[in-house]
Amino acid sequence: MYYGDLFLNHRIKYGTVNQAIEAYWHKINNLKKFNKLNEAFRLTLTAYDQYCRKNNDNIDCESCWTILENLTQFMITTKNYHQGINYFNDGYIPQKSGKYFYWKAKLYVLLNEPDSALIQTSESIRIAQLQNIPEVVVAAYNQHGLIAKSLGLYDDAIVAFSEAIKLVDSSTLDEKRFGYLIGNLGSCYYQKGAFDEAYNCLQIDANKSKERIQDRGSYLNAEIMLAKIDLKRKDHKLALHRLDRLMEMYESFLIPFQKLSVLELYMQAFKLSGNKSKYESYLNQWITLTKTNTESSIDANKKLIEAYSANAIEQTILQLEIEKKLLNQELITNKLLNEQLASRKEKSRLQKWLFAGGVLFIILVALFFLSRYRKKVMLKETLLKLANKEQDFLKLKVQEESRNVQILSQELTFKQDFSKSLIYKLKEIENISKPVLNNIEFFIENELDIKSTRALLQNQMGDLSSNFYTDLKIKHGNLTELELKLAAMVVMKMSNKEIALSKNTTIESAKKAKNRLKKKLGVPPEGELSEHLNSFL
């Protein structure tokens, strides 16, 4: 960070505009690597305001797309997609890069405007074809395919990726550099269920990408998808061999999303093969990594949204101050003008001018208070958006707790199924007396620790949210602790089966308990219990 600051200051002072943008880009990426998203966002806004707006003097900037790319990522995180589009519309890029259209198209995808998204990447292809640079045209077709794929238009995506591959084959471009194109094509075939075509494409991508360090991410994605197809083909041995090789040689290069996928495939393979101990081992690893990533993401996103909201409030206050100064200057100017006019006119016309000046002053004062009122409304709206973002974080926390409960419930179900299956097989063995069989059954249930798991699941319910329990108790003081925990289970979207498992009772009993709670809370028969309880979040 220290040398990054030195590099940035030197480039700003002595370098060109493009060199300064490059230095900003390096500093922003370093802040993102250390999960300092709030600082990275503020620095990105600084670079955008200084170099990349249409109304500044640095209109020769060719690197502004990197700043717009970072702003887009921040707007996607904060879900302010329209603001991301505004940054693109207010930015200036003399020769628009293909990535400019691609990131703008991603925002339109998130806004559920597929036509606008495809128009962006189609325009990128048109401009690339006019430039007649093969590598640029290949990139434009690939980006169009990625947007079509994200919209679920797999046939359109296959056409775009195929066009890019044909162009590589017919030009002097190095085929090894474009293995990822075949991998993208294979992922579309996978989504369509054409596993043979997908397998062939992904195998080619893995072979080509493996030889290039720059394409390591494409190689890892291809190997993970190949392992998925191996499992669908019931070839557990080949799938495990592929996964073991990834973990032994490339574990340090796997990003969190890829590592979670690898752990999920391990769990699936060992569950299908009946290896319970290894399944539980990888399940525990998956739970730990999921919790770590979720907590880190929540913390970083919270800081980013706080920075975004603070910036919005600062901009509103700054605009208020500017308008206040302008109004004061206008009042002073009008006052001087009135004095000059009054001194030049005859005494007989003095009253008329004073009357006109008084009317003008009253209008200006009215405009001033009207402007202040309007800005106060804008400030309140900004604070309301901040409150909504905080509400989103609370919902995200509830989702995290719900995921933990589902994991524990899955573990409990697996253990019970395994226990019942083992007891059933023991009953089929001849010459075993019923007392001996009962002792074995008791031993198995205690070894599998079903009751401990159920208790842990119930305790998890109690940690949902202190505010939730407090508000619910204030409104409905006659609820018991068991009813409060049942309310938490309903809020966390647990099924009747999961509730029954956690309470060691039947599904029918769980339904009756929910009906009793519904009556006690005064929810009408046609109303939804979950909707009523969600109002306390």
Describe the structure in brief.
The protein is an all-alpha fold and 537 residues long. Helices cover 82% and strands 0% of the residues.
Q: Could you please describe the fold and organization of this structure?
A:
With 537 residues, the chain is an all-alpha fold. The chain has a domain of 170 residues. The protein is 82% helix and 0% strand. It has 23 helices and no strands. The mean pLDDT is 78.
How many extended strands?
A: 0
Q: Please state roughly what percent of the residues sit in beta strands, choosing from under 5%, 5-15%, 15-25%, 25-35%, 35-45% or over 45%.
A: under 5%
Please give the largest β-sheet: none
The helix/strand order is HHHHHHHHHHHHHHHHHHHHHHH
Instruction: Give the averaged pLDDT, no decimals.
Output: 78
Q: What class, by secondary structure content?
A: mainly alpha
Uncertain regions: pLDDT < 50 for 5+ in a row? none
For this entry, what is the oligomeric state of its chains?
single chain
Distance between the termini: 40 Å
Q: Identify the overall geometry.
A: flat
Output the number of helix runs: 23
In helices, the fraction of residues equals over 70%
Which value, in Å, is the CA radius of gyration?
Answer: 32 Å
